Amino acid sequence: MNSPSVSDKTSPPSSSNPVENRVKLAGTPAFDPASVIYLEGSGNYTIIHFTDGRRELVAMTLVVVAKQLPALLRVHKSYAIAVTGIGHLRWVGKVNSKRALVITMRNQAQIAVSRRRGAQMAPVLSQRTGIIIGQPLAKM
Question: HTH LytTR-type domain spans which residues (predicted)?
């Protein structure tokens, strides 16, 4: 009978190991996906915003970059966010007309959720973050 080797006794590779989880996109150094706070798409380019304030511009569409970072949530045609990066959620606009859900990220960036997705995303974001959405004030 073969006895287990030292390597067999070590724990299996953990998905939380930052070295193993690193993502490499063309034109950028490898990075930990957990360090991404949001993506901002602009045509054929995407700006990756990191938790440390750093930004990287990549020559790829938002769709392509977002596929490499499945933990991000697409909230707008031009934005995908990390739910862990959300600081505040609020509605803006009049109570009985078109309102927009605005996300304030932990780095103070404000991202508007598309009107089409706002009503669907509000309860999802509130549940995932535990943040109660601030309601707009009614006109007096």
Answer: 31-79
